[in-house]
Each structure stands twice: as structure tokens, then as C-alpha cells.
Amino acid sequence: MTTVPEVAVIGVGLHPFGRYPGKSALEMGEDAAIDALADAGVDWTEIQTLFAGSMDVKNPEAVSALLGMTGIPGRAVFTGCATGGTSLAMAAQSIRLGEADLAMAVGLDKHKRGAFADHPSVSGLPEWYGSAGLFLTTHFFGMKINRYMHEHGITEATLAKVAAKAFRNGEATEHAWRRKPLSEEEILASPYLNYPLRQFMYCGPDEGGAAVVLCRADKAREYTDTPIYLRASTLASRREGAIEVLTPSLPVRDTASPTTHASREAYEQAGLGPADVDVAQLQDTDAGSEVIHMAENGFCADGEQEKWIAEGATEIGGRLPVNTDGGLLANGEPVGASGLRQIYELVNQLRGRAGARQVEGARVGYAQLYGAPGTAAVTILST
Amino acid sequence: MTTQVPVAEDLFTWPAEEPALIAGRAADGTLVFPYRPRRLNGTAREELARVELPRRGTLWTFTSQRFRPPAPPYAGDDTAETFEPFTVGYVELDGVGLRVEARLTEPDPEKLRIGQPMELTVVPLGRDPEGNQTMIYAFAPVEV
């Protein structure tokens, strides 16, 4: 490690993702926060600043009404599917700036079933784009992996293997939403939702909460024997020419995705490289995204995924276990909380308490998020 | 006969025997689709020329839509019961360095292939409040 960490994670908490009729998003955030506080061994009254992420709740920082109205600054955070990375980064930043010694990041959401619906104008797009049936982020996922498979020789069988791994890991994760393993044959027999992506290769929107307690690195051992240090947190937005969600046209020009930029900057911040990472959480909105993100985060070259996945390299026990808790495919995506679920899993892995899905000797964990409107976040943690 | 109207102004030339998409062109040749009258180029606000795009290109990538998109914003002339799955893709237009996202006329993704020649057409979409039939651009495979 070449950098001295300034911020540590001392506690993580989760309200399992799934469907909870009658329970509000704020209540799920409350449960996750209480879980994280217990893990950190601190009281809510000691938390000095709060960053709360949600897509469907306008003021998620109102979770303080349930936890206790202590008067601390509470701020809502939203950067699409990258929200968890941002709430964590902002909580860490407030510690670096000396605003707080103890901070909390929380995410909570409660989505309806089915595709997200909105007016195109919220994304700066004309009305006809929605009228024509083009205003769907899922088209991007199908189109990007279709082109990627064509250029880099990735097969449909590899997509099925990625999905099968997710559900297998979900089976080993007590808190996962989808815990029934599916065979590659069953996955390949499900219908195309967005060619070449099939029904069982997609995550679904759902409900849940996740929370993280952070503190000054030099004080972390006052709270825990197993602090996990924040080595890097980055956010990048789209650049002209990259294929992104909801893009009516793009120039013919090779441009790296925001994930690639966020990843490179994160490795630089951490003074680490892809070979140092022991366990990774990659945005798997669909099985194709996980394949693409393996390369965009520097773990392998474009096309090498075919061999890696055939060899089981991303399985627990492989050279780079990916989405050890089943990722988005097995947990669904409450958008505001999803990124902090990644952190929850990584912290448990780095603390050696992941049970049946433990990656032996894991010391460095890597988390990546990607979503609308072309925004990527990367977080690197270490023991 | 029902009157057919473009789903939006300044999107494609219509009525026309051979409709073409409309784009903005900056002084440096950069094409902006859909058309906007101006853009920010560095620090300067630049007026864009209104130009027609080439009607032909090749299929760069594509996918399919199995379910009726959430409506609104979707305004197709169908219901959840009558909805027919469709395909969308990016077509790399000939000679201008631009890929355009569009509906494709071939509904079966397994009959499409990356690199095949495509040509612009205009197809019915839905109804406007006056009862006119709205029309949207699409790309059709070119028979070779």
C-alpha cells in the first residue's frame, strides 16, 4: 500500500433486498442503519453527519426521524445506479474535511415491479424519443453486449455461466432475494427480453436498505479490531463518443466508458492495480454488464472473459471472485441502496465473516457501479 | 384517409418520396442528431446548420423489446394485448461518422446481423390528440 488511509469503515448493515409489502423504504433504511451502528459499536447520537441515497424517496435523510432527531446535517444524494458510491464518498469527504469524525452513509428504496418509467425530458431528451419506445435503458444493455460479443468473441454460453454463478452465490447468501440455483440450460431456455439478453440474465428492481458507518482512520481501532480502510472512491460521467444509455446518436469514435475512467483513477488513488484485488463487486444489471465490466475495470483484456469464465476464474475459489453474494442478479436493485450492498459484502469478506461464500485471505476489495445517465463509481477497500 | 404527420418537427423530411433524418452541423463538421439549432463548443455558443443525413448505412448493433414499454412516455398505437415485440439498433450512416439509434422494421432479432446494409424509412407509430396518425423514422434491411 503506497497511500496512508484517512477514512475507515467500522460498521456495515443491511435490510435484505426483496419485496416487503407494508414496509416503507425509510423503515428499511432505519433497520439497515441500526444494523450498521450495532456492527460499529456506536450509538446513533454519536453520528455527526448523514448522507442518504434514494431514487423513489425524495428526502431519504428523513430516516433521522426514525433513528432520532439529533439535529445533525442530513443530505440526500443521488447519482442514479452509482448512488451508493457517492453517498459513501461524500461521507468520507466530510471526515477528510474535518466536518465529522463519525459519519453514516445509508441507501434505501422501494420500487414498483417492471421497467422504470419517466418523461424523456428528465434526461434532456425530446418527447418523441419516449413516444417511439426508445426511452428504455435496457435497450442499451442489449445493444452494448451484442456489439461486444460480435467484436470480442463472447458467446451466449458465457452469459448463461455468469447468470448461473450469480444464482449459485445467491443460494449461499442468507440475505439474498433469489436463492434458487438455475442451470445454464434453464437460463438459455428463458425468453429474450432484450436480445441477446434473456429473462434470467437480468436483475429486477426491488426494495431494501443498506448502511455504512465511517470514521477517521486514526481513530478506527477505538471501535473495532478489524477496521476496513477506504483506499479510493471515484465518480466519472460520460464522454462524447462512448455508447451509453439513452443516446439517440453517437459519433464513430472509440471512447472509453465512464467505468474505465473511474477505474483508472481509483487504482491511481489507491496505489494498487487490478492484480492486487482479491474480491470484486461489479454492476451486473444483466449478465452482459458483468462480462464487459471485467475488462473495463482492468481485470482482463477484452475477449479474455470467455476463457476466464470457462475456467471458473470469477467463482468463489477462482483467481478473482466476482459478485460473491450473487450481485444484482440475485439481490435485485433498490437503486439508492445497491452500491452500499456491495460495500456490505466486501467488508464482510475482508473481515473474514462471509461464511459459506468466504474468499480465503481476501485483503483488497473492489466495487463498481454503472447506470443512467452514463455515470460510473468505483470504490476500493482494504484491510 | 387518415392524415399522417411526423411525430416531431425537424426530425425527418416529410412528406417525401425518400425521407431523410435532419441533423445540425457545426462549423467543424460535427453532426448533432436530433437537430438542435445551437450547441456549446468549448466556451463559444455556436449556431448549427440544418442538414439532411445520408439515408443508408450498416447495422452497428441491435436488440429487441419484448414487452410494451411503459406508457407514457410510449405512445404506440397498440395495447398490452395487441403489442408486437420490436427491435431497435444503431445504424452507422454511410460516410458521415455518425451512428443513429432507431426502430428497425424487422421484428425478429434472429433475422438481423451486425454489418448488414440498412435504409431509412418512415412507419406509423400512434395517434396525436387530433386523431392524425403519427409517423416515426425506422431503418429497414436492404435486400441484396
Model description:
The complex is a heterodimer of chains A (383) and B (144). Chain A is built from twelve helices and twelve strands. By secondary structure, chain A is of the alpha/beta class. In chain A, strand 5 and strand 6 form a beta hairpin. With 144 residues, chain B is an all-beta fold. Chain B has one domain. Chain B is 0% helix and 46% strand. Chain B is built from no helices and eleven strands. In chain B, a hairpin with a 5-residue loop joins strand 10 and strand 11. The mean pLDDT of chain B is 94. The interface between A and B is large, with 41 and 43 residues. Strand 9 of chain A pairs antiparallel with strand 9 of chain B.
How would you sum up the global shape of chain B?
Answer: globular
- What number of domains of chain B? 1
Q: How far apart are the termini of chain B? A: 34 Å
The spatial strand order of the largest sheet of chain B comes to 7-8-9-11-10
Uncertain segments of chain A of ≥5 residues (pLDDT<50)? none
- What's the count of strands of chain B? 11
Instruction: Name the beta content range of chain A.
Output: 15-25%
Could you state the CATH homologous superfamily of the largest domain in chain A?
A: Thiolase/Chalcone synthase
**What order do the strands of the largest sheet of chain A run in, or round the barrel if closed?**
3-2-4-7-1-8-12-11-10
Total beta strand runs of chain A:
12
> Mind describing the biggest β-sheet of chain B?
5 strands, mixed, barrel
What percentage of residues of chain A falls in helices of 4 or more residues?
A: 25-40%
What proportion of the residues of chain B is helical, as a percent range?
A: under 10%
Taken in chain order, the helices and strands of chain A follow as EHEHEHEHHHHEEEEEHEHHHHEE
Q: What portion of residues of chain B belong to β-strands?
A: over 45%
